């Protein structure tokens, strides 16, 4: 995939590598280098596969420093660096850590400031799919560097043109009626469970044998496919100990569905949430059992076509039945999305609308949005969601572009600028203000001024401390100004865009430090502040560990 880029990546490395002045300025001490290394993300895989959504440049471990100049860092920036090697050892005393440290030191000498750049994610990747020199020879060894072009006002013009065309298409097909149509009623049933709540509790007691003394309620989430087969089970971390993997496996065996979510004579995948009471006591004949279902939710593609309402007849039960309606607006939005895909869209291009629809309980009174070049698909998704939403009360939107295209060297923390605000209950002013912000600047380097924009939104909204602020942010970059949030009391919900392979550990650390929540197209990550140093948490199949400095990825599936 990326071998064609090797020569381009390596050109000019001699020029930088042998610059003694640069090396003297950036060479870390052994203590600093070891501390840096200990915080790196690390996982094992049979054979390394590059990320599909970023431009990857390969630097083999045998690089001599011949070609780094063509990396053209004046035009683009490094987003992620993977150091890839194999687990196989001919000599049992071989020290892989020392070799990796040496390689990182050499690369840092060639790219001044690389180790100090907090926007770059570093990952150690150990390949386990070979067990002899001959078998390991075809495996890649060295650095894979992911880069992204600097965004400017000029490079944003194509994105703006595409955004305008897509919005024009969406607006043409928008229903003329001022009132939202209720749509046509269609058949809807809750997914069929194989067990009653009492049977689920009994099954769980038989399957979960971990000793438990501290009373607590543990929430869980399951993803289920259209046939009713469980795809994943995740329990939310708590401050009290319990056997996480054992409980997840017990829930998998105890909470079982015989079908998908039936709507309009079709079966759809769904997400189910529930709770388990620990420790589990003797099964009671009356009262609440030890396990129960609390909520169902549907994929965004289904939610756009159908309005589903969960109802209950008996106050003792959370949901007894559902009602669904198919709307013309939902059908038009689905067709517009399909017809308007000009540039290839990322897998989570509809993360904003999906999270917003997943949380009708949010006030959505204050929304802060990154509109730099990397965020084009998500700004369209925000506007598409707004078109189909009733703006009954005035809402405050703050759009930020990281400095109105000023040179990166002139950007100052807290005073970067490029902030555009509008308070309205109408769609058109929001769209116009967003486009104005995009025209004024594309972002430049990787880090953005998210914190400056958040604090600006707080100043504009007197009630911001008592309501949620929704921040729509880029997972691949991290705010240059996060330290500005040191004393914030805001309740921030961060919608992370671009979570395709992993969640940026720095966002996990930010959320844990300030009590924020994180939201991806698949998951809601809450209560990170309850995790203690050394604990691990599994999110979307990836395992992260709490460290003294934040989080790091320690296992990837």
Question: What do you see in this structure?
Answer:
The chain is α/β, with parallel strands linked by helices and 557 residues long. The chain has 3 domains: 147 residues, no CATH class; 236 residues, 3-Layer(aba) Sandwich (Rossmann fold), CATH 3.40.50; 143 residues, no CATH class. The strands form 6 sheets. It has a 7-stranded mixed β-sheet with strand order 17-16-15-18-19-20-21, sandwiched between helices. A 5-stranded mixed β-sheet has the order 1-4-3-5-2. The chain has a 4-stranded antiparallel β-sheet with strand order 8-7-11-12, with helices on one face. Helix 7 runs parallel beside helix 13 and helix 12 crosses helix 13. The radius of gyration is 25 Å and the shape is globular.
- Percentage of residues in strands: 25-35%
Parts with pLDDT < 50 across at least 5 consecutive residues: 1-25, 333-342
Here the CATH topology of the largest domain equals: Rossmann fold
Q: What is the structural class?
A: alpha/beta
CATH level 1 name of the largest domain: Alpha Beta
How many runs of DSSP E, i.e. beta strands? 24
Report helical residue fraction.
Answer: 25-40%
Major sheet size, sense and barrel closure? 7 strands, mixed
Strand order of the largest sheet: 17-16-15-18-19-20-21
Number of domains: 3
State the oligomer.
Answer: single chain
Radius of gyration (CA) equals: 25 Å
What is the end-to-end distance? 22 Å
Number of helical elements = 16
């Amino acid at each position: 995939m990326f071998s064609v880029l090797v020569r381009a990546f390596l050109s000019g490395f001699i020029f930088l590598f042998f610059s003694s002045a640069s090396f003297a300025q950036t060479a870390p001490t052994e203590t600093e280098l070891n501390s840096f290394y200990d915080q790196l993300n690390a996982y094992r895989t049979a054979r390394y596969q590059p990320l599909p959504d970023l431009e990857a440049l390969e630097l083999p471990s045998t690089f001599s420093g011949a070609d780094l100049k063509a990396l053209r860092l004046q035009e683009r920036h490094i987003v992620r660096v993977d150091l890839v090697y194999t687990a196989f050892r001919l000599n049992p005393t071989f020290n892989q850590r020392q070799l990796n440290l040496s390689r990182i030191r050499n690369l840092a000498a060639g790219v001044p400031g690389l180790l100090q750049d907090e926007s770059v994610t570093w990952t150690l990747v150990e390949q386990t799919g070979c067990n002899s020199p001959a078998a390991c020879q075809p495996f890649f060894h060295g650095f894979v560097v992911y880069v992204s072009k600097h965004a400017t006002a000029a490079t944003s013009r194509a994105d703006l043109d595409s955004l305008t065309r897509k919005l024009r298409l969406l607006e043409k097909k928008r229903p003329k009626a001022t009132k939202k149509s209720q749509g046509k009623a269609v058949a809807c049933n809750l997914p069929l469970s194989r067990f009653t709540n009492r049977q689920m509790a009994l099954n769980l007691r038989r399957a979960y044998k971990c000793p438990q003394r501290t009373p607590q309620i543990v929430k869980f989430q399951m993803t289920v496919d259209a046939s009713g087969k469980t795809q994943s089970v995740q329990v939310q971390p708590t401050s009290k100990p319990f056997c996480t993997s054992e409980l997840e496996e017990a829930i998998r065996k105890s909470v079982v569905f015989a079908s998908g979510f039936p709507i309009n004579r079709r079966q759809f995948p769904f997400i189910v949430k529930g709770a388990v009471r620990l420790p589990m006591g003797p099964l009671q004949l009356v009262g609440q059992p030890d396990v129960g279902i609390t909520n169902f939710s549907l994929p965004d593609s289904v939610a756009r076509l159908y309005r589903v309402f969960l109802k209950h007849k008996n106050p003792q039960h959370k949901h007894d039945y559902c009602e669904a309606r198919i709307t013309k607006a939902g059908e038009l939005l689905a067709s517009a999305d399909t017809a308007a895909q000009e540039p290839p869209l990322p897998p989570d291009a509809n993360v904003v609308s999906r999270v917003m629809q997943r949380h009708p309980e949010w006030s959505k009174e204050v929304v802060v949005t990154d509109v730099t070049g990397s965020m084009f698909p998500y700004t369209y998704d925000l506007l598409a969601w707004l078109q189909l939403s009733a703006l009954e009360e005035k809402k405050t939107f703050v759009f930020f572009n990281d400095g109105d295209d000023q040179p990166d060297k002139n950007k100052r923390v807290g005073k970067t600028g490029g902030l555009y605000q509008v308070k309205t209950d109408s769609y058109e002013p929001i769209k116009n203000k967003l486009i104005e912000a995009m025209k004024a600047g594309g972002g430049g380097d990787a880090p953005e001024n998210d914190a400056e924009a958040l604090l600006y939104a707080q100043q504009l909204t007197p009630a911001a401390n008592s309501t949620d602020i929704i921040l729509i942010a880029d997972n691949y970059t991290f705010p240059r100004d996060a330290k500005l949030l040191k004393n914030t009391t805001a309740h921030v919900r961060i919608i992370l865009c671009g979570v395709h392979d992993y969640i940026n550990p720095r966002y996990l650390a930010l959320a844990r430090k300030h009590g924020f929540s994180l939201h991806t197209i698949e998951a809601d990550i809450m209560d990170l502040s309850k995790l203690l140093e050394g604990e691990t948490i599994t999110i979307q199949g990836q395992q992260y560990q709490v460290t003294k400095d934040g989080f790091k990825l320690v296992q990837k599936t």
